[in-house]
């Protein structure tokens, strides 16, 4: 077997800092670094030199094209490729070129991207701007090799039309606010604080040939019909189970591609549902982590095809088994390497950590709806609140040790002890006893403290992780600023810190919940506590119109009221479009595949009944099945007509919130009503006669 040497191949497709230092003249490299540190523009002459080196490096890697890679409000990336070719010279020969201007700025005619009204088609101009804080890299695929330049995307009037611009703004905001707070604690050396983010990515793999026989998977990314297979995930035999050879070969290729692309692919395992898997890289700076998660998603899809499989990133490809999410691990780290979320071994003595923690608790409680919204996408509606994912209610899991400290603050205004982990006795002399963590894990909490980071588990598997990080950075920045203001003139700083922690703990204790987030009791309890329970994407999107949310983003310059309004519109629009595609796909499948197949089957049943009777035998069983199938067929036809009608009505609704609500409350229900009889039919009709592969074929044939 061919050997893989990770250090040797790692980042070979990335124009890394090391490559840059090696290739660029010292003065140019210094100027480039300075422009990043000071947030200043690069002059064109410098950019020209850099672009030229990047071109030579990329061509050395086989690149023929370059593209600005950006993240419009679609959840995925977009790019327009240009080759390096120049106009022919007089003798007919051509050269390659790549200018500083082309590196720094692009002008895609992207009038078709969602803009929530920010960009009418008559003012289609938009700009992509090079993000110098995320490295350029080359990608090898069937199109050849392409140089990719991470960029932010703006409208002609300078409004952000993407995920990256507000993310970078929010990173500046959280850095400034963190530094202000750190100064009060006597930290004079840190100059920047950046969120570190590690995204665990779940996905399904199915056989490509089987996938291609399902129109719902092709158009909607999820099954819209499908009776449960006899076996699901009940035996827990897939979770962490032995990885099947076909999947193992896929994972090997994915890892190699990711390592070459500079993504620190680290963990891989089978997930709970059959055919479900997970991959996680080592955490990185938030901006890089967001970009790399897009690379991970694209790589999973591309490599799956190479193995005659399809990678499903939809949040809920199959009813009845777990859906897929993304865990967004988030912490704050100074440029000197200090993690502000590191509690140390005696957290009750770590006042800076406790205040940071109290601020986060306050922020999450105050903006629970906004945080939930940041994970809203149409597919995620099937997960949040269902029994495998976190509920749609935001709460915080702290673990027994930190919860105990918070309780001490609530009771007495300070804390004097930290619960210790103790020892786990293995009960065997062959196994050494081990020390235990002070806190158990909790898998049902949407926002869980896990050692030295918070893990936000609501994010959907196909969605960008930009939004949750934009929200976390901004809401925590506001809480830090509030705290800094309160502490800046304190006479007795330590006492003031204790008082503030106690105040926040008391005021926002309701958001802390260490119990089972999947239970019905929690839903009741959360309501008593006054916590929002935004069950659907449409409910959640309304939060973007709240006055305090508009004010927050505006105050910090992360999103202007206009930009925010546009995002709200895009979300409503997106919801309606997705449900519309699903409804039309169901109509198509029911009309052209399912009903004709069932009619044919009833014909063969009827023939059988007649033949059996003619032979002088009792055809009661055959006739019984025929009656049952015919009844369900009737139900199907009626439900189909109803779905057709409401889908047509939906198109007539006023665009935006009203239309999204209609899709959510009317069309979505009509889809369920059509699915029910069809799934029953699938259980009765001869498998040979059923017009598409079953759940069993999809989930167990990889
Ligand atoms: P889990 O405990 O959730 O099973 P891991 O400990 O493997 O998972 O971590 C999950 C993700 O969290 C990984 O991407 C990991 O690199 C990332 N991570 C670990 N520590 C931090 C941190 N301090 N800040 C942000 N992300 C982190
Ligand atoms: Mg995790």
UniProtKB/TrEMBL annotation:
Source taxonomy: Bacteria, Bacillati, Bacillota, Bacilli, Lactobacillales
Protein name, UniProt field: Glutamine synthetase type III
Family: Belongs to the glutamine synthetase family.
Single Gene Ontology MF annotation: glutamine synthetase activity
Coiled-coil zones: 626-653
Domain of life: Bacteria
InterPro entries the record matches: Gln-synt_C (IPR040577), Gln_synt_N (IPR008147), Gln_synth/guanido_kin_cat_dom (IPR014746), Gln_synth_cat_dom (IPR008146), Gln_synth_gly_rich_site (IPR027303), GS_Type-3 (IPR052725), GSIII_N (IPR022147)
GO BP annotations listed: glutamine biosynthetic process
Ranges of residues in domain GS catalytic: 163-594
Domain GS beta-grasp residues, every copy: 64-158
Keywords recorded for this protein, A-Z: Coiled coil
């Amino acid at each position: 077997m061919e050997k893989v040497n990770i250090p040797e191949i790692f980042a070979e497709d990335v124009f890394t800092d090391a490559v840059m230092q090696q290739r660029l003249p010292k003065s140019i490299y210094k100027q480039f670094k300075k422009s990043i540190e000071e947030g200043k523009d690069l002059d064109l002459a410098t950019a020209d030199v850099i672009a030229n080196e990047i071109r030579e490096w990329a061509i050395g890697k086989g690149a023929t094209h370059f593209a600005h890679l950006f993240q419009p409000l679609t959840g995925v990336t977009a790019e327009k490729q240009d080759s390096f070719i120049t106009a022919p010279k007089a003798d007919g020969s051509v050269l390659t070129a790549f200018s500083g201007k082309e590196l720094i700025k692009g002008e895609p005619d992207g009038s078709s991207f969602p803009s929530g009204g920010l960009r009418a088609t008559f003012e289609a101009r938009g700009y992509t701007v090079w993000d110098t804080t995320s490295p350029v890299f080359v990608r090898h695929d069937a199109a050849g090799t392409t140089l990719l330049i991470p960029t932010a995307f703006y409208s002609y009037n300078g409004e952000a039309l993407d995920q990256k611009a507000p993310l970078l703004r929010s990173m500046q905001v959280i850095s400034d606010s963190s530094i202000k707070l750190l100064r009060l604690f006597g930290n004079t050396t840190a100059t920047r604080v950046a969120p570190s983010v590690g995204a665990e990515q779940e996905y399904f793999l199915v056989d490509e040939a089987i996938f291609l026989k399902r129109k719902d998977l092709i158009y909607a990314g999820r099954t819209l019909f499908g009776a449960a297979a006899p076996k699901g995930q009940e035996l827990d035999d897939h979770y962490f189970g032995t990885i099947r050879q076909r999947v193992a070969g896929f994972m090997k290729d994915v890892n190699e591609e990711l390592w070459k692309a500079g993504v620190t692919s680290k963990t891989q395992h089978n997930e709970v549902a059959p055919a479900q898997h997970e991959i996680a890289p080592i955490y990185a700076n938030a901006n890089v982590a967001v970009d790399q998660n897009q690379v991970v998603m694209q790589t999973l899809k591309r490599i799956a095809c190479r193995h005659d499989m399809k990678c499903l990133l939809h949040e809920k490809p199959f009813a009845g088994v777990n859906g897929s999410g993304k865990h967004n691990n988030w912490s704050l780290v100074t440029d000197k390497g200090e993690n502000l979320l590191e509690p140390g071994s005696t957290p009750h003595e770590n006042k800076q950590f406790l205040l940071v923690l109290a601020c986060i608790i306050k922020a999450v409680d105050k903006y629970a709806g906004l945080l939930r919204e940041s994970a809203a996408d149409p597919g995620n509606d099937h997960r949040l609140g269902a029994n495998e994912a976190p509920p749609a209610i935001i709460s915080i899991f702290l673990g027994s040790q930190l919860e105990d400290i918070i309780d001490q603050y609530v009771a007495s205004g300070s804390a004097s002890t930290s619960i210790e982990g103790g020892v786990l006795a293995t009960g065997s002399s062959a196994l050494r006893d081990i020390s235990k963590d002070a806190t158990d894990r909790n898998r049902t909490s949407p926002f869980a403290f896990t050692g030295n980071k918070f893990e936000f588990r609501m994010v959907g598997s196909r969605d960008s992780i930009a939004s949750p990080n934009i929200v976390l950075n901004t809401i925590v920045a506001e809480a830090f600023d509030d705290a800094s203001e309160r502490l800046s003139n304190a006479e007795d700083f330590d006492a003031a810190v204790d008082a503030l922690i106690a105040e926040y703990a008391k005021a926002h204790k309701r958001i802390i919940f260490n119990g089972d987030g999947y239970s019905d009791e929690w839903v009741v309890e959360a309501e008593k506590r006054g916590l929002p329970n935004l069950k659907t994407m449409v409910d959640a999107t309304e939060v973007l119109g709240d006055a305090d949310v508009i004010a927050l983003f505006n105050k910090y310059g992360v999103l202007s009221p206009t930009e925010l309004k546009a995002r709200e519109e895009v979300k409503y629009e997106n919801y309606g479009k997705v449900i519309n595609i699903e409804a039309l796909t169901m109509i198509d499948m029911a009309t052209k595949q399912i009903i004709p197949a069932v009619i044919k089957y009833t014909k063969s049943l009827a023939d059988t009944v007649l033949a059996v009777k003619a032979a002088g035998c009792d055809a009661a069983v055959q006739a019984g099945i025929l009656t049952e199938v015919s009844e369900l067929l009737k139900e199907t036809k009626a439900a189909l007509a109803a779905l057709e009608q409401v889908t047509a009505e939906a198109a007539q609704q006023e665009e935006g919130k009203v239309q999204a609500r209609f899709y959510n409350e009317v069309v979505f229900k009509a889809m369920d009503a059509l699915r029910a009889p069809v799934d029953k039919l699938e259980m009765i009709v001869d498998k040979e006669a059923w017009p598409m592969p079953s759940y069993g074929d999809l989930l167990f044939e990889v």
